Amino acid sequence: MARVLITGSSDGLGLMAGRLLVGQGHSVTLHARDTRRADDTRAALPDADDVLVADLLSLDGIRSLAGQANAAGPFDAVIHNAGIGYREPRRIETVDGLSHLFTVNVLAPYLLTALVAPPHRLVYLSSGMAHGGDAGLSDPQWTNRRWNGSQAYSDSKLFDILLAFGVARRWPRVLSNSVEPGWVPTKMGGRGAPDDLDLAPVTQAWLAVGDEEAATVTGRHFYHGQQRSVPREAHDPAVQDGFLAYCAELTGVEIVDAR
User: Fold this and answer.
1) 83 with 227: CB under 8 angstroms?
2) Beta bridge partners of 77
3) How far apart, in whole angstroms, are the C-alpha atoms of residue 156 and residue 148?
4) How many CB atoms lie within 10 A of CB 249?
5) In the predicted model, is pLDDT for residue 143 greater than 90?
6) Alpha-carbon span 45 to 153, nearest angstrom
7) What is the DSSP letter of 204?
């Protein structure tokens, strides 16, 4: 039995992955943004160990979740599932003066990775839209550009791959991978999404607990159980390190090299 933490798991793919893992006999801790959602989550999956409550729209909220996770852990795996979608009509600034989409999609998994006791496995939810992302760091907060929600989302999902691959390099004892679940009909994906919803949570759950050789790799990107190619810059250590340094500057917390 593995102990697994899933962020952003009050509904959608996070809750589906939790339900799948509980059904396999694993111990699952979920996460919700507020107490109302937490109550709904407990009702939806009463066999979950716990539901942690924290709003990831602020650095303090992310730190709060890290503290709760360390108190509830240690965990064998963490699935970084929380995210904001690509339909945001405007840039919203957080209390920290940062893009809300970048904060939830990128800084939350970064800071949680840095602050939560390292598990054996890390799984980061990316997207097929990462293939159209820009890994440049000239304006990740969209303060100088006209807002484009689709591009901002694509960039954030490419950054999540950089995070997974950068952590894989720095923490060789941890299996760190990224996943694109497919364009599926969730609240984020929309009703017309063409991919298979039943398959969407399977790969991240498998990477979190699977003992097959194919699941015990690191620094890879997956789609429906198969490794998938990513933009070339995602494999560049200099690009990874530049991104990690940028996140460390924003948060004041570094992911320390454990090689």
Assistant:
1) no
2) 4, 121
3) 12
4) 9
5) yes
6) 29
7) H
The structure's pTM equals 0.96
Reduced 3-state DSSP string for 157-202:
HHHHHHHHHHHHHHCCCCEEEEECCCCCCCCCCCCCCCCCHHHCCH
- At a CB cut-off of 8 Å and minimum separation 6, what does 84 contact? 100, 101, 104, 105, 153
Cβ–Cβ < 8 Å for 154, 86: yes
Contact 13, 82 (CB under 8 A): no
According to the model, what pLDDT value does residue 193 have? 54
The CB density around residue 66, as the number of other CB atoms within 10 Å, is: 21
The H or E element containing residue 233 is none
Residues with a known catalytic role: 153, 157
- Least Cα distance to 99 among 243, 250, 233 occurs for 250
What confidence tens digit (pLDDT) does each residue in 75-85 have? 999 999 999 99
* Side chain identity, residue 59: L
Please compute the mean of the pLDDT values over residues 15-34 and round it to a whole number. 98
Torsion of CA 167, 225, 8, 251, to 10 degrees: 10
Alpha-carbon dihedral 191, 195, 199, 201, rounded to 10 degrees = -60
Q: Contact 111/82 with Cβ under 8 angstroms?
A: no
* Residue 179, pLDDT above cutoff 80: yes
